[in-house]
Amino acid sequence: MLRGLYTAAAGMMTQQRMHDTVTQNIANINTPGYKSVNEAARSFPEVLISLTGGNGPGTAQIGKLNTGVFAEETQPTYTQGDLRETGKSSDFGLESSLELVDPATNQPYAFDQSGKFVKEDGSVVYRPQAFFTVQDNNGNIRYTRDGSFHVNGAGELLSSTGFKVLGSNGQPLVLDRPIHDLQTDNKGNFLYNGIPTNQQLQITVATSPYELVRNGNGVYEAADPQRAGLRNMEAADAVTVRQGSLEGSNVNTAQSMVDLMTAQRAYEANQKVIQFYDKSMDKAVNDVGRV
Fold first, then answer.
1. Rounded to an integer, what distance in angstroms lies between the CA atom of residue 170 and that of residue 189?
2. Do 94 and 247 contact (CB within 8 A), yes or no?
3. Residue 270 near residue 12 (C-beta atoms within 8 A)
4. What is the pLDDT of residues 18-64, one digit of tens each?
């Protein structure tokens, strides 16, 4: 009987995680470049029943039975956020609609609105994504969609977290004149009075963006760059850099409210189950035992 109690408790913990995830999305609705995250829930492994003695000698096999659900991981959704003009020369927005060719058909994958394509064998292919390339204070390479940059006294272009923004040569960008005197074309090349300054924002394309790991503050890292399929942006890539604009978050407020209410109702349902078990055990101990 207690198995049901544990199942309901696992459901409450999972819904609490769901609630926290949605709350985090809503809290970052105005954060530039923020990508909403979704909670992935899985059934608790059936093998745990055996480990706890549930399928011991003399126990009849009645088929698969798991012990509830648990929140396994959070995954970001790399859909394009809306671009809004700020008029600030140090703000940059990325707009990308990269395609990926299916080697079997030699045709581009037909990605859905969430940026994924499910093959016939069930495997999933995700749309490649473009990122600004930055360098943290320890010299590590990181990636972000937050283009709210600023320039320090040394002329270095820095991200909102203070990381150095890298140029196409892999080195931190150091501007030799005020940024409001510079313009950029749609590939991130800096111009002065229409003349290229030989400086360009380094835009990195991740062919498998879900291999990137969130590092906080809208920054991602690649634990395995080869697995993430990282490469520098090419001229033919469908990526546009817009100076004086910022990419907003891709949080869907209406869907977030629906998810919030769903998590709350599911939490309450599991809570009722636990109350039922508590009353049943109370009856068994205090009333049935007395008879």
1. 14
2. yes
3. yes
4. 999 999 999 999 999 999 988 877 776 654 555 555 555 555 555 55
pTM (global) more than 0.85: no
Residue-wise DSSP of the chain: -HHHHHHHHHHHHHHHHHHHHHHHHHHTTTSTT---EEEEEEEPPTHHHHHTTTT-TTPPP-S-----EEEEEEEE--PPPPEEE---TTBEEEEE----EETTTTEE----TTSEEE-TTS-EEE--EEEEEEE-TTS-EEEES--B-EE-TT-BEE-TTSPEEBBTTSSB-B-SS-GGG-EE-TT-EEEETTEEEEEEB-EEEESSGGGEEE-STTEEEESSHHHHTEEE--TTSSEEEEETEEE-----HHHHHHHHHHHHHHHHHHHHHHHHHHHHHHHIIIIITT-
Question: Tell me, what amino acid is at 269?
Answer: A
